[in-house]
Amino acid sequence: MGKKKKSEAKAKTRLSSAVRVPTRKAKRFYGHGIPRVDLKQLTGRLIVVEGADGSGRSTQINRLVEWLEGCGHATVQVGLKRSTLVSEELEQAQQGNILSRSTLSLFYATDFADQLENVILPALKAGFMVLADRYIYTLMARNMVRGMDEKWLKNLYGIALEPDAVFYLNVSPEQLVQRNFAKNSALDYWESGMDLGLSRDMFDSFLQYQALMAKQFTILRDSYRFTIVNGNRSADAINAELRKHIEKIIAGS
Ligand SMILES: Nc1ncnc2c1ncn2[C@@H]1O[C@H](COP(=O)(O)OP(=O)(O)OP(=O)(O)O)[C@@H](O)[C@H]1O
Ligand SMILES: [Mg+2]
Fold first, then answer.
1. What gap in Å lies between CA 130 and CA 164, rounded to an integer?
2. What is residue 92's predicted lDDT score, i.e. its pLDDT?
3. What is the structure's pLDDT at 122?
4. Alpha-carbon gap, residue 73 to 246, rounded angstroms
5. 6, 39, 54, 110: most buried, per Cβ within 10 A?
6. 53, 179, 210, 230: which to mutate for ligand 1, most atoms within 8 A of CB?
């Protein structure tokens, strides 16, 4: 290499180590996705908060929304059973306990697909911060606990967009019971896995069911890369950790 070329190469190396241009992680679907979506146009960020019933998801999302909007970011919130297309019917079907497991899971998948197509993707295209209170992982874990095939579920949820971050609030079963009672003075039939016949005692069933769900989340973590957050701490401490991660995501690293 000539002298001039050498010094040019050196200058380039100096420049690249001095200036770090933020690079946004490219968006992608987990599988087949939704047709005719230009992923490059999705300039917003999708942040998912996962965790068991009463783990503190709403508490954290409310705080994140306040913080993000205070910093000038527009936000949109999504969650399970919130689609305009099927949420009412889904609620009715659950009340009556009338649908088979696979039909119920397809109902949930429809609810998810509707929100993805009509809320999440348009909001990301408009540059919004989208905060999802649970995502496909809870749906998959619930179905896996009920014996459904992981491969079939992965294919079904291949429609989903990979989030920019997934935070899993890991809370001990004892804390979960306390928080659920503090909030509702009762446990939820489905979140206690009562349909599985683990135990006639709801409290006992809740503990067993949450342990089974946690195990499925560990399995899913290998494929879907969650950030596990210790959710047993104060809401402030948890929020500070989430903000740190999200700041990096906004900066593009
Ligand atoms: N870090 C925390 N420490 C102690 N209590 C908490 C913490 N975070 C939330 N809580 C309390 O626990 C209860 C459940 O919290 P929250 O509603 O945020 O959970 P959630 O995961 O959204 O529940 P759900 O599954 O019912 O939507 C509330 O009473 C809330 O005030
Ligand atoms: Mg909530």
1. 10
2. 79
3. 98
4. 12
5. 54
6. 179
Distance 61 CA to ligand 2 centre (A): 9
Query: CA–CA separation, 112 vs 161, rounded Å?
Result: 11
**Angle between the 87-96 and 101-115 helix axes, to the nearest 10 degrees?**
160
pTM: 0.88
The CA distance from 253 to 240, in Å, is: 18
Give residue-wise pLDDT tens across range 143-158.
Answer: 999 999 999 999 999 9
Query: Phi and psi at residue 228, in whole multiples of 5°?
Result: -85, 125
In 10 A of CB 174, how many CB atoms? Answer: 10
Q: Output 122 or 20, whichever has higher pLDDT.
A: 122
Bridge partners (DSSP) listed for residue 51: 169
Count other Cβ atoms within 10 Å, centred on residue 37: 17
Tally the residues of the chain. 253
DSSP string, 109-171: HHHHHHHIIIIIHHHHHTTPEEEEES-HHHHHHHHHHTT--HHHHHHHGGGSBPPSEEEEEE-
pLDDT digits (tens, 9 = 90+) for 98-155: 677 788 888 899 999 999 999 999 999 999 999 999 999 999 999 999 999 999 999 9
Map out the domains of the chain with their CATH numbers: 26-251 (3.40.50.300)
